[in-house]
Amino acid sequence: MRVVLSQAANMDDLREMGIPPIGLAYLSAYVKAHEHDISFHCALTVDEILAHEPHVVGMSSVSQNATLANQMARELRERGYDRVILFGGYHITGLPKTLSEDFDAGILGEGEETLLEILRAIRESPSRWKEQLSRIGGLCYHQGGTVITTPARRPIKPLDRIPHPDRKILDEKWPPVHGGVQYIYASRGCPYACSFCSSSSFWGKPRFFSASYVMEELLQVMEEYAPRHFFFYADLFIADRNSLGALSEMIKASGLADEVSCMCNARSNEIDDEVLGLLKKMNVTRVYMGLESASDRVLKAMNKHTSFEKTLSALKLLKNSGIKVTASFILGTPGETTEDMKKTASFIEENLGDLFDEFMVYPLIPFPQTAVWNYAIGRGIISSNIQPEVFRRATFSFHPDTYVYLNQAAPRDSFMFYLYYLRFLRLREWVRRLLRSNYDLGLMMGNSNREIAALKHELEKAGEYARHLEREISNKEQYIDELEKRLLSQTGANEPVGGTASAHKGLEKRQFIDWIKGAWRPGQKR
Description:
Elements: E1 2-7, H1 14-18, H2 22-34, E2 39-42, H3 46-51, E3 56-60, H4 66-78, E4 84-88, H5 90-94, E5 105-107, H6 112-124, E6 139-143, E7 146-149, E8 181-184, E9 187-188, H7 199-203, E10 207-208, H8 211-225, E11 229-232, H9 241-254, E12 261-266, H10 273-281, E13 284-292, H11 296-301, H12 308-321, E14 324-331, H13 338-351, E15 358-363, H14 371-378, H15 412-435, H16 438-447, H17 449-490, H18 509-519
Parallel strand pairs: 1-2, 1-3, 3-4, 4-5, 8-11, 11-12, 12-13, 13-14, 14-15
Antiparallel strand pairs: 5-6, 6-7, 9-10
Helix pairs in contact: 2-6, 8-9, 9-10, 13-15, 17-18
């Protein structure tokens, strides 16, 4: 049996294309460990899928690319493919009722055991395999004009039961990237439940691969790919200190820390001297931290379980340890005021290049099955059949026209201003780093045409929004000029203004005009 796996990805988004879908490699490794007559291939396009003449096609997608996955399934059907198409990943797990008729079934949550059982059912009864779906946990499928969901499957325990990912199926489409970075998953799930994140609802309680399992994979990948960097891409690699301590000892003792550097995700309230010592021992040179906001009010609203004071403390500890930081921030949380946004922007301006050298900023997105999703659904702002394009947040795919703004505490225009302003700061700092070295600049000009094209696209979008703001400002000025003329024609220069200005009784006409000019902001109703 031939199975082709595909990750629906936006090929114009550098971040998406830079990180290989290790999840597909785990699926291949798990099935092959139990069934030796099933082969796996990886493909990006419909043409590539059909070229392998597969018996089964498995697609995976996050929410922002669900439309692409649906389009690929539809095209496969239109081109005569009448065999099995399965859908998996975060989006269908969060919204199983949205399963397209072009898919035979959707795999919900952790997929290794579910996929194995489906493939066995197909092999045993190619024409009647769907009759067995009701007995397989973790599925959704069509029946009688509706979508049926089977009971959730128990998470795999211990995780070491899963073989190391079959990276070979990814090599052709996702070769080693970013100067030889290889991505390692040391765990599944997160002990926290931030309002904007769907990890805990997808994976359930966090589980960790053993230190010996991870070490074995590191040595295997080192031998096959000789990377210069490892990225521990778990949600929170440092959460289990026992595993972290054991792994750091193994990496140090093996000599691996002298050959490669490591990177990982971290959290400000988990950073202390003990953790820093373990990270240094395994030669971690950079951490990625979701700082989100410089406002404690916003952090509380996000259910971050941390504070701005802890953020500062963690950043200072990391700086003193010589570990670089890439920080990320989110704007648009319900309750976030313009002053909160300004505070975050000021914090970034003052500390970029000092406490952290890189940062990213994202708009708040109501991803399915998050607290933010429930907030938006509960207030009727969105519905469960929302278009997947709304979930786009990355710099090169986000567009203000399709963005659903959930925050009533600050004008939408203020949000857009700070979002684009901070993205401008990020791009400016990135270009500055490139310009510090002619060699790096030469590489960019010679080998990175896609990056340049993407930057041009983003600058065009920023220019479009800037022109929109200019029109808003012009409309405001025209409105105030018209209002001033009317006031001057109706009242004397020193007479109190009446009528609509009754709330400001006693103000002279000129004072009232000045008040109007200072108080009105774009986006407010006139």
